[in-house]
Write a structure and sequence with these properties.
With about 230 residues, the chain is of the alpha/beta class. Helices cover about 35% and strands about 20% of the residues. Helix 1 crosses helix 5.
Length: about 230
């Protein structure tokens, strides 16, 4: 079981973004040490926070950094990007970059960090997915990469459940992040959930923090929606 005192070291990708920053901050408040991986500069300041600037899409550049991480008890893969386009307007290179960031980077990090967790009989992995994974007009490439995370998580969870490691996906609906202001998504406007507002990054962070806690030891292989009612029948 996870130590109930100092929680241990968590690696959070995308820690300079809205969701990743909220997760890193919440984990620090809960007693974790946090190493943040992001292409951008640090947005978290704390004596238990270490920031590493890296492009996770670049396997050659990121491999030695990932392999150099030691003593990791939790991985949260929150790094993400969104490019939109209906089927006649898709940019193939955009889809390839989303796949490298969302899927390939997750696989490389899990392959490096989870075996030591299994040896210690102790570990947590949370992948940030999306409600869009079920399909949405204009977002097929993004949806495909996020849907892949669910299949990966369920497969990995079944492999490591007996070793005390859990693997889950948290899938938010439209969230109040800087992505909402990105001109690149103008062709596919976000849908406000039935609760009448966007999901807040702190709400996602609270769920992730719980999934990393000892109380969540029996939750694994799940795709957990935080959707403000978006998954309810019309």
């Amino acid at each position: 079981m996870l130590n109930k005192g100092r929680a241990g070291l968590a690696v959070v990708t995308g820690s300079a973004g809205s969701i990743g920053q909220a997760i890193a901050t919440k984990l620090l408040d809960a007693g974790w040490e946090v190493t943040g991986l992001d292409l951008g500069p640090p947005s978290v300041r704390h004596d238990r926070y270490r920031h590493i600037s890296v492009d996770l899409c670049d396997e050659q550049a990121s491999r030695p950094i990932i392999d150099g991480l030691r003593g990791v008890r939790a991985l949260v893969h929150a790094a993400g990007m969104l490019r939109v386009g209906r089927l006649d307007q898709m940019v193939i290179s955009d889809g390839q970059r989303m796949w490298r960031l969302h899927v390939d980077a997750a696989a490389r990090m899990v392959q490096a960090l989870v075996p030591p967790m299994c040896e210690q009989q102790d570990g947590r992995v949370v992948l940030i997915g999306s409600r869009v994974a079920q399909g949405m007009p204009g977002r097929s490439q993004y949806a495909a990469s996020k849907a892949a995370l669910v299949a990966l998580a369920r497969s990995w969870a079944s492999e490591v459940a007996a070793q005390g490691v859990t693997v889950n996906v948290v899938s938010p609906a439209a969230t109040q992040t800087r992505m909402l202001e990105d001109p690149a998504r103008a062709a596919s406007a976000p849908r406000v959930p039935p609760i009448g507002r966007f999901i807040q990054p702190d709400e996602i962070a609270a769920l992730v923090t719980f999934l990393l806690s000892p109380s969540a030891a029996a939750i694994t292989g799940q795709d957990i929606a935080i959707c403000g009612g978006a998954s309810l029948p019309c």
